[in-house]
Amino acid sequence: MSDVLDLVKAVNGDVVTPLDPSFRVAIARWARNTEREARVVVFTKTPQDVVASILYAKANNLPFAVRGGGHYAGPASSVAGGVVVDLSRYMNTVRVDPDTDLGYVGGGALWKDVDEEAIKFGLATVGGTVNHTGVGGLSLGGGFGWLSGRYGLTIDNVRQATVVTANGSILTANTEENPDLYWGIRGGGSNFGVVTEFVYQLYPQNKTVFAGYVVFTPDKVEQIVNLTTAWFRTIKPDESMIQAVTVKDGHPVVVLLLFYNGSEAQGRENYKAFLDIEHVFDGATEIPYEQLNSLQNNSVEHGRCYYLQGSNQAVPDAASMLAVLTKCGEVAEAGNFKPTVLYEYFNLNKANTVDDAATPFRRGLTPSILTILAWEDDVLKTTIAKDIAKEFVAIIKSNQEGTAREIGYPNYEPDVFGGPDGLRTTDNSKDWENERLSPDFDAKAKLAFGPNYHKLQQVKMLYDPDLFFNRWFPITPA
To answer: How far apart, in whole angstroms, are the C-alpha atoms of residue 142 and residue 456?
Structure first.
């Protein structure tokens, strides 16, 4: 095996090994239960550093992972005994060109960086709804946001990317250069290389928006669901909401996070029917745009353990939401987990005008539902959390009569990589040596990508025939 000093000499960035005092910080992730004991972490400064890291991993037959924001409930950005390329320390800059309305964003940047820099120019793009999420994973896997009603998905607004591929090439991907690679990265995830820079289309944006939380007691569920059903049928381009079922101060509640791209007066008029339902708290107000994507931050802080599971629901359903409320109360009372179920009512009309074949991401979208289980202590509770999440998903799908997809939004699916169940395979919290591709990884990818899977296989064969990149819905080359 090559000495790590060879890697140190080959890169301009920082190389961290388990002997370094900063190693624990280097492998820390948003979800503590996804941390892995890497052999080496490389904080890259340039695409050439990424090339050197890839070649080192391949020469030494080491597994490889890429960390942008590290904000994922699966081990996509961590790897046991392997090489991690970390873009977050140096490759995190944001440059806005107001003449072209384009944003040049490093692969290690966070959405907070993009939101704050772009709005200085009165601009914005479709980004994540939690601003400490990295741009990389969200952009490669789809990307819903508050501005989706106007501009579609995040992938619909990626105009170009710089990609380091498995053979060490540094390629520009856009409609003119390497168009097959450009197609693949817009929804095909991290299967084709390391994206060191994204170029996003930016749009004029109000400096302030109407947004915030309104809290309701469980007895208001039927009113909320009936109103939501009618509202969502004719949803406007400048409105969206997230409905959260959770437990606060020991009591199950329904929380509406409202968004309207306008003034408080406009927003309150727009949501008057919802606000007329009796509620126990109203925190919706006019806020600076750059604060919008921070509103959920406190509920998903770094350093806890998390398990996420995605599903979807074609039509809002009061009976299943009430059952979810009851389940949340039971789980919270047991004391092991803090449960939250998010019903994401983004305006999907623009995103659904894009043809299925235009990107790998499947359209025909219906609202996503995200089950989140958070806890503070033993990472081994991940297996228990997975079982509880399955119970939530079964409740959500109970009245959908076959309209729900078999697999949810791919960025909400944590169990693509790992042991037979996608999770740890030993009881030793520091022993990940048995981690491996789930036996059914190919079947999961087929479900995720649907009719686009065969073309993705062809692109995979061109750019990564040896399955070097395999941490997120791995695609079998063909």
So the answer is: 15
- Write out pLDDT tens, residues 182-239: 999 999 999 999 999 999 999 999 999 999 999 999 999 999 999 999 999 999 999 9
Do residues 127 and 203 make contact, with C-beta atoms less than 8 angstroms apart?
no
Joined tokens for residue 242: 């997230």
Structural domains in the chain, sorted by start: 4-86 (3.30.43.10), 94-204 (3.30.465.10), 208-412 (3.40.462.20)
Collapse the DSSP code of 359 into the 3-class scheme (helix H, G, I; strand E, B; otherwise coil) and give the result: coil
Looking up tokens 């389940």, which residue turns up? 327
Residue 47 DSSP code: H
In total, the chain counts a number of residues equal to 478
Q: What is the mean pLDDT of residues 339-345?
A: 98
Cα separation, 223 vs 228, in Å, equals 8
131 in Cβ contact with 177 (< 8 Å):
no
Question: What b-and-e string marks burial along 314-344, b requiring 16 or more CB atoms within 10 Å of the CB?
Answer: eebbbebbbbbbebbbebbeeebbbbbbbbb
Instruction: Name the CA radius of gyration of the chain, rounded.
Output: 22
Kindly report, residue by residue over 71-93, the tens digit of the pLDDT. 999 889 999 999 999 999 999 99
What b/e sequence results for 128-148 when a residue is b if at least 16 CB atoms lie within 10 Å of its CB, and e otherwise?
Answer: bbbbbbbbbbbbbbbbbbbbb
> Would you state the structure tokens that stand for residue 383, as one six-digit string?
């297996």
Residues near 249 by Cβ (< 8 Å), separated by ≥ 6? none
Q: Which two tokens stand for residue 150?
A: 């106007």
Q: Is the separation of the CB atoms in 414 and 308 below 8 Å?
A: yes
Give the DSSP H or E segment for 197.
Answer: strand 194-201
Q: CA–CA separation, 442 vs 478, rounded Å?
A: 12
Task: Give the pTM.
Answer: 0.94
The encoded tokens of residue 90 equal: 């140096």
Distance in angstroms (rounded) separating the CA atoms of residues 347 and 237 = 6
| SS3 sequence of 74-134 | CHHHCCCCCEEEECCCCCCCEEEECCCCEEEEECCCEHHHHHHHHHCCCEECCCCCCCCCE
Place of tokens 């789809």: 142
Calculate helix-pair angle for 318-334, 382-397, nearest 10 degrees. 160
For the stretch 411-440, what's the b/e string if a residue is b when 16 or more beta carbons lie within 10 angstroms of its beta carbon?
A: bbbbbbbbbeebbbeeeeeeebeebebbee
263 torsion bin: left (phi>0), alpha (psi -120 to 50), beta (else): beta
